[in-house]
Amino acid sequence: MKNLSLLFIAFLFLQFTTLAQEGWFWQNPSPQGHNLESVYFINELTGWAAGGYGTIIKTTDGGETWCDQHCEVVDDWSGLGFLHFIDDDVGWVAEKVVESSFVYSRIHKTTNGGDDWIFQASMYETRALQFVDYDTGYAIGSAYEILKTTNGGDSWESQFYSDTLDLYSCFFINNSLGWAIGSSIILKTTNGGTDWFFQDCPVKNQLNSVYFINDSTGWIGGGYYYDNGVILKTTDGGENWIVQVIGDWGSYESIYFINENIGFSINNVRNEYGQIAKTTDGGLNWEIKYSEHIAYLNCISFTNNGIACAVGDDGMILKTTDEGEEWVPQLKYFKNYLDVNLQSVYFVNNELG
After folding, report:
1. Taking the domain 35-337, which CATH number applies?
2. What pTM was computed for the model?
3. N or C end of the chain, less CB within 10 A?
């Protein structure tokens, strides 16, 4: 009987997306509880977050409230991530599709702030997506590939391919200058990806996130679940990379710098929970600003005035308004605060339950 009950609960969970369109909605966590993989703010008020089961939510009040948006995905298992917006209206998101043992991505675009998302193109599983203007964008494919579009995402061409190099992320300053990183790999282009050349990597870690504030100064975060986390820095465009941090068990997943001194990183500890660290001296020293042992954190996005949001598993959304000194949950959320499993619910009327 217990097994039958578990199967019935699993059936209800898998049917959530359909039911939501027929009158069911998330009550806790609110606005929703699927894992959030990506967040992107275009200004201090307007931002989007995307994640599991085709989830896209949008805020127009700086994260105080969020509303659902709809993107047509292949099936209920499809996750969304790697959000990137050029302005309040135009943006892209990558859908991850799993069919048997084959994984691939579908790129969707909006031109009205996310009210409608239009499918554009398919490619191997996307690990990074960035647009530098309305036409030019870059993507990292899991098939050891760097791709580029010059028509706003309608079509993509391979710029770099290797059957031995595993790439994870990229970052472009402009149409010409960019970097791509992977497993102990740092690549640089100065001509929009036509040519890529290797830069010396001083560590043997998986590299996850790269961010530059100008054409000279940048940082890389790396590590893998049970590996030592690492942060690298360059002040000469990558000609030389120095090791700034070798942390305890965990991985630095998302690196962001406001200027040459103030920066932030997400560190996921042993695949158990996420931390947010801040530096005020260009990465020499880092101080943990958030570590509640609640959820795995995945992405962080800042606006120009020090306001930011970070997102993670189980629908976690955190916000700061003081350049990362304090991070406040932005949703009704008690799931991991309780060391119990909830098995049943019953209401005697519309309010009492």
Report:
1. 2.130.10.10
2. 0.86
3. N
**Residue 12 Cα distances to 19, 71, 314, 335, 353, angstroms:** 9, 21, 17, 19, 20
CA angle 282, 317, 106 (to 5 degrees): 90
Q: Which residues contact 285 (CB under 8 A, 6 or more apart)?
A: 279
Q: 242 burial class (0-12, 13-18, 19+ CB within 10 angstroms)? A: exposed
pLDDT of 27 strictly over 80: no
**In 3-state terms, what secondary structure has residue 13?**
helix
* Segment 260-291, tens digit of pLDDT: 999 999 988 776 788 999 999 999 999 999 98
For position 143, what pLDDT does the model report? 72
Question: What value does the mean pLDDT take over residues 129-147?
Answer: 94
Q: How high does pLDDT run on average in the chain?
A: 86
